[in-house]
Amino acid sequence: MSIEKNEWKAAARRHVLRAVQVCTVPLLGLALIALASCGPAPVVKTVKLTVSVDDNGQLRTGSSVVTFYCTDSNPALGEMGLGTCKLYGEAVPVDLTQRRYLFMIFTDQDSYNADTFISDIDWSRPTKTATSWNITREHMPRLVTFDDPNRPATVKVVRPDALDQAFGGGVTLKAVHVELTSEPETRGQIYRFLPWLDGWHASLDGQSGITSNNLSNRLENIHFVRKPV
C-alpha cells in the first residue's frame, strides 16, 4: 500500500470514529432522508454482505444486510471523504456444518475499533458508481471462529488466505461480496449461532475492561451486533 493511500485511509478512519447523532426515523432503503430538526440530513444506505467459502467442493455462504447512516457531506459507499458514518446490523455468519462457524465481524485486520469496518468496505469499491463488488484481500474485515461456540473466550482469528488452518484441508475463502440493496436489515440471525451474545455486556473473556491484547479481551458484543443507542 502506498504512503499516500495509508495517509488517506488513516484520515478516513480518524473521522469515522467521530460520534454522529441521528434522529430515529423509518429505514427507507437507499433513500435520502431530510430531517431539518436533526442538523445535517443523514444518508441511509443498506448493504448486503455475502461471504462465500469453498468447503471441499461444496459452496457455503452466509449473508447479512447492514445499514449505514452518514452525513450528507460524506455518504458512505458513494462519496466517501472525511465526514461521519455509523453502521448498524449484524456480523456475517457462515455455517460450515458440524458446529464449525466462520464470522466476518465489524472491525478490520489491523484494528479493534468497529467503525474501521466502514472505511475498509469503501476502499474496496472500484468506482463511486459501483453498486456491487468484492472486498479485496487487502481490505478484508476480520474473520474469526470459536473452538467452542458456547465458550466466548475460545474466539480466534482466521486468516483469509488460510481457512484450512482453522477448518481443515480443502476449505478456502472464495469471496466477500458487497451489494447495495433495498432488503431489510438483518436482525436476530447472529443469535442462532451465538445465543449468549444476547445481553452480553463484557469482553468475550468475561472481563469488564481491556486487560490484555488477547483477542478474547479486545472483542465484545459490538463487533458482532451494532444497534442504535
Give a verbal description of the structure.
The chain has 229 residues and is an alpha+beta fold. The protein has one domain (3-226). It has helices spanning 3-16, 116-124, 163-167, 190-193, 215-218; strands at 42-55, 58-71, 85-90, 92-95, 101-108, 132-134, 141-146, 155-157, 171-181, 225-226. It has a six-stranded antiparallel sheet with strand order 6-9-1-2-3-10. It is globular, with a radius of gyration of 17 Å. The relative contact order is 0.18.
Entry summary:
The protein has 229 residues and is an alpha+beta fold. It has helices at residues 3-16, 116-124, 163-167, 190-193, 215-218; strands at 42-55, 58-71, 85-90, 92-95, 101-108, 132-134, 141-146, 155-157, 171-181, 225-226.
Number of strands: 10
The largest sheet, given as strand count, sense and whether it forms a barrel, is: 6 strands, antiparallel
Element-level helix/strand string: HEEEEEHEEEHEHHE
Give the terminus-to-terminus CA distance: 36 Å
Total of domains = 1
Shape annotation: globular
Low-confidence stretches: 1-38
Residue share in helix: 10-25%
Binned strand content: 25-35%
Round the mean pLDDT to the nearest integer and report it.
81
Number of helices: 5
* Strand order in the largest sheet: 6-9-1-2-3-10
Quickly give the structural class. alpha+beta
Rg for CA atoms: 17 Å
